[in-house]
Amino acid sequence: MPPLMEHFDALIVGAGPAGSFAAELLARAGVKVALFDGRPEGEPKACGGGVTAKALKAWPHLLNAVGRTVDELEMYSPSGKRLHLCLEEPFAIYSRIAFDLYLRERAKTAGAKVFAAKISARGIKRTQNGWTLREVLGASTAAPQPGSCTPRGEPALTRSEWLGQMLVGADGAGSSVARMLAGPLPPSEMEIAFGYRAPLPESGEPPTVIAFLPGWIGYAWAFPRLDHISFGIATTQEAFKHQPLDKLLWDFMLGYYRQREDPKAKLWASRKADRERDERIREKLATTAERYAARIPGLNDKTWDTRRVCGEGWALLGDAAGFADPVTGEGIYYALRSAELFAESFLVQTPLDYEERWREDFGRDLKRASQMRRRFYGNFWGAPFTERMIGFARGHRGIKRVLGDLVAGEQGYVDLKKKLARSALRPV
Fold it and tell me: Could you report the per-residue pLDDT of 163-188, keeping only the tens digit for each?
């Protein structure tokens, strides 16, 4: 029996924020779109789930997703100095299951057809008529995921194939579509994020925390969600060593819960008097915490000049294009913005303009972040720059305000040095 085939204007591989938002924008304009979600049912992307104030202002409908907004943040230097930030512009924290489902449902409502099908490079073929996609052998189309199924009233296809004019890769940092079309990225241009989903504290309002790592490149986070806390560490691929970093993350988690019971307790190091409490917390976490891990693109500055993310009949979005902040690993804003820029270019029938548009829009800032990454996690006046930065912010309202804007996504890297210097010269 020959494979059944459906024809589309655009085939979008990957139903995360970038793919789903692009599918929604195109479908609302009357484009026939297929969106492929190959993620196993109920499996979230490993991500803190933070969505910046900049993203919330650009797309206010994101606040309709089930999550929580944050207007206060605790930030810790590598030595454990605490800085409390009251954010002028709140950001939001989402479960990626809920957030991705919300965006995928919007795409479906707009008219995109969503398929629970895993597509890899070996299932993609370019023809004279465009692109042909075939589901990876062994993946199931008989039991689609909620929100990611064959259209209502139509039978599930067997040996499915899909034909389309435009192929869009939005399948994450390990994108097989990107490897095929733009070439692979070296391990040195990847970052690692890993962590645990753990229970909320039994009492008190759990704070949102970012803590720069002592003696290590990167930072730890504690992002409370509605029913759990996402703990994690982000670091470079080159600096990643599992055992010592996992121990560091457990120290961070124990310190977080320890401080909920004793505000005077330290974040990174415990006292002898804390041992009994720490052991009780550790035993509970050992039976309840769920581990996760993921890769994040962290491109070098020279790569931004040479790597193209679109060509004749194809484009890459979000993490698949390498669009993530090399300093923080934040990528949701860039996923959504790249989807918007691509959709706008496609709808006026100039899809190749997408390359120039993303470079003008946010490309300079990401390149600048790549140039600053080593300095950001390096030394400044004999101490880690992050230590100095938080120390200055604790005593200077202007620097503290710039740091808050950086967290909110409102402060870019191109003029960060100038803003910090200007703030430092103003009276406290």
Answer: 999 999 999 988 999 999 999 888 88
Q: Do 136 and 116 touch, CB atoms closer than 8 A? A: no
pLDDT, tens digit, 9 for 90 and up, residues 393-404: 888 888 888 777
User: Is the domain of 249 the same as that of 193?
Assistant: yes
Instruction: For residues 170 and 301, state if they share a domain.
Output: yes
**285: closest CA among 261, 263, 265, 256?**
256
CATH code at position 250: 3.30.9
Q: Tell me the C-alpha distance between 403 and 124, whole Å.
A: 45
120 and 161 belong to one structural domain: yes
Q: Are the beta carbons of 115 and 150 closer than 8 angstroms?
A: yes
- 64 in a domain, yes or no? no
What is the structure's pLDDT at 421? Answer: 63
240: in domain? yes
Domain that holds residue 385: 375-425
* pTM (two decimals): 0.87
The DSSP symbol for 362 reads I
Please report, for residues 93, 94, 219, 299, 420, the alpha-carbon distance to residue 53 in angstroms, rounded to integers and kept in the order given.
Answer: 11, 13, 20, 24, 20
Provide the sign of the torsion angle of the four alpha carbons 348, 306, 416, 210, taken in this order.
positive
Q: Strand pairing of 124-127 and 113-115?
A: unpaired
Residue 59: φ, ψ to 5°: -135, 80
